[in-house]
Specification:
This protein is of the alpha/beta class and 297 residues long. Helices cover 56% and strands 14% of the residues. It folds into 2 domains: 2-176, NAD(P)-binding Rossmann-like Domain (Rossmann fold); 182-293, N-(1-d-carboxylethyl)-l-norvaline Dehydrogenase, domain 2 (Orthogonal Bundle), CATH 1.10.1040.
């Protein structure tokens, strides 16, 4: 047991890691991994984005060719927009992964891609984890992501030191593509609850209820939801600095609809997201769904 602990610490201290995707989450993950002592190669389709991150992140090097990023890496994280992007990038790169490397697929993808990507890994003899996360930029920088991992236990053990550096919890939810399935459900709940919070704030306004009083009641009982309590402050301040972008929430609601018949609730949520995007808030945090509550001054 002591030897296994020492081995894990050694891996964690010496790992060469590739992060493919320099969007908000990928950039934060690369930054965190660099801060925890790893040699990080960051690749992005738009090379300038990777270079901008690397310029301010210790231990992170921007790499222009995806093959160069993954070659020699012990763990490769894909943190890309959707399943089509992951398929396109990894179809070219998967053959460059070293023997013994682990591909951690952390992008949010729908059922079609969730089924196809493990097959791509198997065809090339690459160890694979279906491992999206719950959490966005701030939790990634703080090492507080929640991993939703599906895959074999032995592969998870090999990648675990890196996952622990990035997350506060690693949930092994299955051996296939259950991680991607759970992620869609989590994001649907998160998005629907954010829209609901905005609408309830509008109700508070109509009834003359101070928001602080409303929050005090929630915090005093079992109905408090920390994520949404934090969103109230952003909504009241109209502060929509990028976190989880509205356009990504819309993409994920559409993926959920492709997996099952969309419910009346999710149709309403989608309409709200679409209206928010149309108003120019596509890259803003999900809290921007609240912009409709307060007409422009």
């Amino acid at each position: 047991m002591a030897w296994e602990t020492e081995k894990r610490l050694s891996m964690s201290q010496a790992s060469t890691v590739a992060v493919l995707g320099a969007g908000a989450l990928g950039a934060a993950m690369a930054t965190r991994l660099g801060e925890t002592g790893h040699e990080v190669r960051l690749w992005n389709r738009t090379a300038e984005k990777a270079r901008a991150v690397a310029e301010h992140a210790a231990g992170v090097t921007a790499v222009s060719a995806v093959g160069d990023a993954v070659s020699g890496a012990s763990v490769v994280f894909t943190v890309l927009r959707d399943g089509d992007a992951v398929t396109q990038v990894m179809s070219d790169a998967v053959g460059r992964l070293d023997d013994g490397a682990v591909w951690v697929q952390a992008s949010t993808v729908g059922p079609r891609s969730a089924d196809a990507l493990p097959a791509l890994a198997r065809d090339h003899g690459v160890a694979y984890l279906d491992a999206p996360v719950s959490g966005s930029t701030a939790p990634a920088l703080q090492g507080k992501l929640v991993w939703l991992v599906a895959g074999s236990e032995d592969v998870l053990v090999r990648a675990r030191p890196l996952l622990d550096d990035l997350g506060s919890s690693v949930l092994h939810v299955g051996t296939g593509t259950e991680g991607s399935a759970v992620k869609l459900a989590v994001n649907a709940w998160m998005t629907a609850s954010t829209v609901a919070m905005s609408d309830v704030l509008a109700l508070c306004d109509a009834l003359g209820i101070d928001h602080a009083t409303f929050l005090q009641v929630l915090e005093s009982g079992p109905l408090a939801m920390p994520y949404e309590l934090q969103k109230v402050g952003l909504m009241d301040d109209a502060s929509y600095a990028p976190g989880f972008a509205v356009q990504l929430a819309l993409k994920d609601i559409d993926l959920a609809a492709a997996a099952a018949a969309p419910s009346p609730l999710l149709r309403v949520v989608r309409d709200r997201l679409e209206a928010t995007v149309a108003a120019g808030h596509e890259d803003d945090d999900l809290a921007a769904v609240d912009y409709l509550r307060k007409p422009p001054s």
